[in-house]
Fold this sequence. Notes:
This protein is α/β, with parallel strands linked by helices. It is 38% helix and 21% strand.
Amino acid sequence: MNKLLALKALEHFLIEDIGERDASSVIFGDDATCEAVVRAKAEGVAAGLVIFDWGYSLLDPSVTVETLKQDGETVEYGEALVRIKGPVSSILAGERVFLNLVQRMSAIATLTRNCVETLGSSGTRIVDTRKTTPGLRMFEKYAVRAGGGFNHRNGLYDAVMLKDNHIAAAGSISEAIHKVRASHGHMMMVEVEVETEAQLMEAISAAPDAIMFDNQTPEVISNWVKLVPAGIRTEASGGIDLEKLACYRNTGVDVISLGALTHSVSNLDMSMNLILSHKEAIIQ
């Protein structure tokens, strides 16, 4: 993750939650300090634990954060992930924002790891899509990498993806590819979506950098991959749910993109526990 961009986002998230003040903090004295531990309440893959360090550095530089696990590592139920020390009011002011984000990132990493393991050593990569939560794309795409997956384009600006509407507006696949090639420099990657074998052959003739097979069965993809020259990458997308993913293991496609990695996850449950008089009080 880009730390500067992450800090800017975290500042916004904290302002949204805290506003002018944490009204509950009046019960603590100004000098009250404590230790807190973030624990996993489910098995999964950790991602984004540095958020606690970066976030508290914004909120209160006197708070110290020790990360006990590394991103990409498997975590068990009840396992300690992060240890935090500092003013009670500061720790509690940031706990929900940071937990919310890290829980979501860890859920994405966990789902990605499951998908990667499902494909095994087939040589096909799992990649994400632009179906991310507005404002969280950087965090969610990082989580995919932490889970062993790879990123598709980051946005509309860093690669060309010609889908059905683009092709219809241009008149044909060939014309769409010609127009983007004429308008962009040699470093801009161009991918085109195809839905029929006729479109596939037209796309091959126009020589994009990648071809995406949209909503095709494993059998069709296996046959189409054999038609694509080695210099053009292949992608499968659409209609591939997690239950059927294993069926695409041996199709020979280079990447499988799954929007579900970022739009259909449930947070990996975690809690922050204050240690008071050698006992842990769980913050829900």
